[in-house]
Amino acid sequence: MSDTMMDKVALVTGGSRGIGAAIALRLAEQGADVVLTYQENKDRAETVAEQIRRQGRRAEAVRVDSGDPAALVAAVDGVASRWGRLDILVNNAGTFRAGPVEQLTMDDFEQTVAVNVRAPFVASQAAVRHMPAGGRIINIGSNVAERSPFPGFSLYSMSKSALIGLTKALGRELGPRAITVNLVNPGPTDTDMNPSDGPLAATINGLTALGHYAQPADIAAAVAFLAGPDGRYLTGATVDVDGGFSC
Fold this sequence. Notes:
By secondary structure, the chain is α/β, with parallel strands linked by helices. The protein has helices spanning 18-29, 42-54, 69-83, 106-127, 154-174, 201-207, 216-227; strands at residues 9-12, 33-38, 59-63, 88-91, 136-140, 180-186, 238-241. α5 (154-174) links the parallel β5 (136-140) and β6 (180-186).
C-alpha cells in the first residue's frame, strides 16, 4: 500500500459498485480513509467498505439519495464532523436515462439534472466549507459529453457536459485556496451497467482507438493521480480516459 494519501479523508458518492467502488478501493490503497455513499444496495456497499478495512484503512458506507440536496449536504457535513476533516471529494454518483427526445419526460429531465448536475454542485459547495489547502474535488463525467455516437443520448450528454463548465469555474474560484477541481470522463468501461460482452460491445469497441473497453481500475488510476500529490498543478482540466473514443 502506498502512503501518498496517508491520513487523508475521501468521500466517494456512488461508491458501492463499478467505477465508484474501484475509485474508493484505489484511494484506500494510496492510504486514504474512505466514506462511500450508496442509494439502495447496503450489502454491496458494506462489502466495499470491508475490503477497505482489510487494507488497514477506515471506511464507512452511508445511505444517501444524491437527488436530495439536504441529505447530500448532511452527508458531507457528517463526514467532516465524524472524521475530523474532508480532503477529497469524488462526485461519482449518476443516473442514466436515454431515449428518443420526444419520449423523455419531465421526470426524466428533473431526475437527471438533480443527480448528474445539481448533486456535484451541492456536494462541492458543502465540501469546500471543510476542505483545507490541498483539497481535491474530482467530478466523474462521461465521454458522451464530447461525442454522442448513438441517438437517444440528448439528456444524458447535456447533463455530463454541464460538468465541464462547473469544473472550470470552480477550479478558477478555488485555486487561490489551493483546492483543485478536475473532471474525469470515462469512456466505455466494463461494469454491470455496460458489460464488455454486451450486445453493443463490438460496435462500441470499434469507436475507440484502442479497440477495447476500460476496466474500472483504469478510471480509478486517473482519479488517484488527480487526488494525490502529483496532481497538485492540475485544475479545471478534463481528463478523457476513453481509449481514444474522443479522438
